[in-house]
Amino acid sequence: MDTINHIIIIGNGFDLAHGLKTKYSDFIYWYLKKAVIKYNKDLVYDDDLISIKPNSNAVRYPIPEFSMSSTEQIINELERQEYLNHFKSEFFNSIVRKSIETNWVDIENEYYNTLQNLIDQKIRTDETTIFKKEVSNLNLAMATIQNELKFYLTSQIRDLEISPMTEILDHLRAIKSNASKANTLILNFNYTSTIGIYLQELVISNLTRLDIHGSINDKYNPIIFGYGDEMDKNYSRIEDIEDDEALAYMKSFSYFKTDQYNTLIDFINSGQYVVHLMGHSCGRSDRLLLNRIFENEYCHKIKVYYHHIDENHNDYISKTMAISRLFVNKSLMRDKVLNINKCKPLAYAHELELSTMQ
C-alpha cells in the first residue's frame, strides 16, 4: 500500500479535556453573569440581547451574588417581580431556556431551526416584510453572540494555564511515527489554539495546520460562526427565499474569505489518508465539510479517540452514531470507522482530573 497521510481533527472535546469551559452553556452563563455584574455597578444593563432594570415601582438595588451560581439561578432572580428582565431576542431567550433544561445547547443548530421556523411562518402568512425583519433581528442576535463569544474564549485562554496531557502526547507521537514519510494535516475546528502547545513539544514533518473556523487571535482568519449542513432536506428552502441575509450565517460562504477550505480539499484529494477524531462531536452543523472528508474515496479509515468516563462507560457508540448521520452511504461508514478495540480514549479519567486542577 502507498504511504498513507493523516488528518487529525480537533474539536471542542479537545479543549474540554484541558479544563477549558468552552461549551455554549458555559458561555451563556458567563454572559448573563457579566450582564448582572454590570447591572450591579450601574443599576441598568442594556445591549442587543437583553435589558435588565428594575420595574417602575421597584427600588434600585444590586442583585445578590449568591443568586449567580448558575444560569437558572440568574434567570430566576431576574424574573422576580423586583426586576424587569427583557429579552430583546426571542432566539437568545430560547437558547438560554434550552441551556437551563439540558445544560447543553448547540447555538448554530438552534439558529438553523429558528430560520426554518421563520420560513414556515412566511409560507403561512406570505408576509415578506415581516420575514425580512425577523431574519435581520435573528442575525443581529447571532452577530452579538459571536462577538461576546470571542471575548469569552479570550478570557478563558488568558485565565487558565494549559499544559500538554501525557496521553494525548502519546497519541500524537504514535501518529507522527506512522506518518514519518507521509503528510499530516491538523484540522482545528476550535477558535482556540490548544493544539499549539503540542506542536511546540513535537516536530512533525510535512505538517499543515488549518484553523478551519478561524481563530480569536487572527484578524486575517476571523472566526466562522453559523450552520454548515447544505445536505439537509430543508436547506434548499433558504435559497429559494432569495434573500441574501437568510444565507448570512451559512458556513459555506464564510469559507470563501480565506484559502483554508481550498487547502483542505487539495489535501484530501492528494492521496489516501486516515482520519483521527479528537474531541469533535461530529454534529450536523459541520455535516457538509465532514462528509467531504469521510466519504472521499481517499479516506481509508476513521479512528475515534472517545471520551472515557470509567471502565464501563464511554461515548464511543454515541460518537459512531453521530458519524453515521454524516454519511449518505452507510455501508461506506461501516467499512471506514474502526471498531472500539482499534480506537482509544482521548484521555483517561486521571488525566482529565489533572487538567482541570491546573
Textual characterization of the structure:
The protein has 15 helices and eleven strands. It is an alpha/beta fold and 358 residues long. The strands form three sheets. The chain has a six-stranded parallel β-sheet. A three-stranded antiparallel β-sheet has the order 2-3-4.
Read across the widest sheet, the strand sequence of neighbours is 6-5-1-7-8-11
* SSE class: alpha/beta
Query: What Rg, in angstroms, do the CA atoms define?
Result: 22 Å
SS strand fraction: 5-15%
Q: Give the overall pLDDT as a whole number.
A: 92
Flag low-confidence runs. 350-358
Annotate the secondary structure layout.
Elements: E1 5-10, H1 12-17, H2 24-42, E2 45-46, E3 50-54, H3 71-78, E4 83-87, H4 90-102, H5 107-125, H6 128-159, H7 166-178, E5 184-188, H8 196-199, E6 207-211, H9 235-240, H10 251-254, H11 260-268, E7 273-278, H12 287-294, E8 299-306, E9 308-310, E10 313-314, H13 316-326, H14 330-336, E11 344-345, H15 349-357
Parallel strand pairs: 1-5, 1-7, 5-6, 7-8, 8-11
Antiparallel strand pairs: 2-3, 3-4, 9-10
Helix pairs in contact: 5-6
